[in-house]
Design goal:
The structure is a single chain. By secondary structure, the protein is of the alpha/beta class. It folds into 2 domains: 81 residues; 285 residues, TIM Barrel (Alpha-Beta Barrel). The chain has 16 helices and 15 strands. The chain has a 9-stranded mixed sheet, with helices on one face. The longest helix is centred in the middle third of the chain and has 13 residues. The chain is elongated, with a radius of gyration of 26 Å. The two termini are 40 Å apart. The relative contact order is 0.12. This is TIGR04150 pseudo-rSAM protein. It comes from Bacteroides stercorirosoris.
Length: 410
Amino acid sequence: MEAKNYWFALKSYVYVEFKEKNILIYDTKHGDRIETVHERVITLIKEMYEPGNLGVISISNELQSDPCIRNFIQEVIDKEMGDLMDTEHFPNKPVRLIPILSLQKDIDRHIEYEDKVAFIGKDISKYLTEVNIYLNSICDKSCKHCAGYCKQIHCCTTNNPGIELPIEQVRGLLEQLRHSPINTINLYGGDILAYSYLNELQLLVSSYPKPLHFYMHHKNYRENGFIDSQLLELIITFPMDGNHFHEIWKQIKDKQSRLHFIVEDEQQYNDSERLINEYNIEKYSIHPYYTGENIHFFEDHIFLNKEEIFYKALQMREIFRNQKLNSNSFGTLYILPDGTIKANMNTSVLGNNAEDDILDIIYKELIENTAWRTIRNSHPCDQCIYQFICPAPSDYERTIGKNNLCHVTN
């Protein structure tokens, strides 16, 4: 850097996270980053972000003589995260667009003005991306963690034992969803095959334009022409009978099916891997389950470290998304056998399917925010420069009782 005056600006694809004593400068295009605790550097970048500077600041000879500033600017240039522009060639101060979150349809603005009619008029059904319907809570298998699986993973449950969702409510719900842009409709039990209205459900589904996913525990699986013609999501828990699994796999391997292995420890994970390899299973997912006693398994295999947080470049829109909504929960509703509607199996009730219109439920969740807009704004995440680089809070945080599942902050 020669002894002359320059204009200095960061690239428009660079995101900056300011905290009290440090900052993160992150390249959303290439994944590079610069972290610093130097007060003079932090002051320099804060000056760049002042509205009147329009993303560009002057680097005088005096600033260039500061080794801390000079080394920082050189690192920015070397990593192609910013520009130095000679004031002789650019006598008029240039302008650099700084990425700032500004959502014209932000729900907070509608809360402020209480404009429910106008907001619903924007077709808020587009916010609904997934609906989970529990048809019944009838099952005789007595899985050890039956009441807990569904609070962390897509899974069947016998919570509210003996109750069934009336077929009239299922029909009304599916009709409301028929013309919506929803991507996924999941159906669960208990045991779906024990649902009293299974034949009526088959008639409903036969003319339904959207694919339906049927979640069944492997112990409940039996060949059924209706279920087997749908998208079968088979849940595998341990311990399990290897011979029974072998027989089930012979029945479903050529069907539209995905296997979901729920694992509590490393041995169960290894057993899942062995089955996947032995049977050449192509469509599967492995889901860790927190039992209350296996925190070390989660610390070793689920908690993130810094390298894992930055394993791939995160786009600017993903970072901004993490500032406003929860990508793990947003757009999802659960309808339980008693008609209760929730945005998350761990959160409060929003309404009842027998009484409330889905659009009203969507609006209520957007306003009350039981799950959809839960972000990393609690301690210690609110003090961490990786606050919105990290994935959104999940059901694991709710279940474990920690706001962060990482090895970065305490």
